Amino acid sequence: MTKNTRTIAIVNQKGGVGKTTTSINLAAALAALGQSVLLVDLDPQGNATTGLGVKRKTENTLYDVIVEGTPLREAQVDTNVPGLKLIASDMDMSGAEISIGASEGRTTRLKLALQTYLENCTARNEEAPDFVLIDCPPALGLLTVNALAASDSVIVPLQCEFFALEGLSQLLKTVEMAKGSLNPSLVIDGVMLTMYDKRNRLSEQVAADVREHLGRAVFKTIIPRNVRIAEAPSFGKPVLLYDPHCAGSKAYMDLGKEVLARHKKAIKQGKKV
User: Fold this and answer.
1) E strand segments, 6-137
2) Is the separation of the CB atoms in 153 and 226 below 8 Å?
3) Please, what sign has the CA dihedral across residues 248, 130, 233, 137?
4) Per the CB 3.0–4.6 Å rule, which of 78, 118, 134, 232 could disulfide with 9?
5) Is pLDDT above 80 for 62?
6) Mean pLDDT for the chain overall
């Protein structure tokens, strides 16, 4: 988007791999590291919204932005995490793909909304967010394509289970298609392993297999299976606020540091990654 704002789509067409959990907690970790963050809840289930303690029926949601053309700024709400703002979602988003499916520019609605938002930040002499994170739905449909068109890069959460790599090739093909037709500068930041159980030999084997196949594309940080991570959304908090000392909080802070280090290195080198 702009040189110093990095927009990252959190994508995987499989459900239950930790996309929303990662979106919430990575956003909170980056905010805790002094970054200003805007989290866009693109999933009609609205779990990132409720997971941050925000009511789904806010005055304006992402549906109003995508379908009605409401300025993104008017849908922005504060969260209980300092430095972290949210564009909320609700079940209305389930009809967004149908509403814009036949319209011109249907794949770039989110991109244009974000571009205008960031340009207005500059015009108003306001600080633009350092990071925009987009929590994508568990499908490779029009909403996810909008996220890929709007983003600088992609993070893929991958659950440490037997079928971890199933579907990954299709996702990578979709990213390449988006890169070829919509967003030539789109890159994959990396694949991150989630729900790792050190007591389970299968988790260890899956992690080893993924690293063997994907090498340096895999983040060093591994997110453990942790009950505090699972409990936090029911309290409307990221795990960093719910239990800042648990293993899950430490892992997401480490991930935040890893993402931030890559971003700073990219800026220093004058390129996207």
Assistant:
1) 6-10, 37-41, 76-78, 84-87, 131-135
2) no
3) negative
4) 134
5) yes
6) 90
Range of the domain at 40: 6-267
- The pTM score is 0.93
Domain holding 112: CATH number?
A: 3.40.50.300
Please answer whether residues 191 and 226 qualify as being in contact, where contact means their C-beta atoms are separated by less than 8 angstroms.
Answer: no
Do 84 and 237 touch, CB atoms closer than 8 A? Answer: no
Greater confidence (218 vs 272) lies with 218
Highest mean pLDDT among 53-62, 72-81, 94-103, 210-219: 72-81
Residue 1 within a domain:
no
Distance CA 33, CA 35 (A): 6
Looking at the DSSP assignment, which residues form a beta bridge with residue 241?
none
pLDDT at 40: 98
- Tell me if 7 sits within 8 A of 42, measured CB to CB: no
Least confident of 6-20, 52-66, 136-150, 155-169: 155-169
11: nearest Cα among 211, 128, 178, 162: 178
Query: Cβ distance 266 to 272 under 8 Å?
Result: yes
Residues in the chain: 273
Pairing of strands 6-10, 153-159: parallel
Pairing type for strands 6-10 and 187-196 reads unpaired
What is the number of domains present in the chain? 1
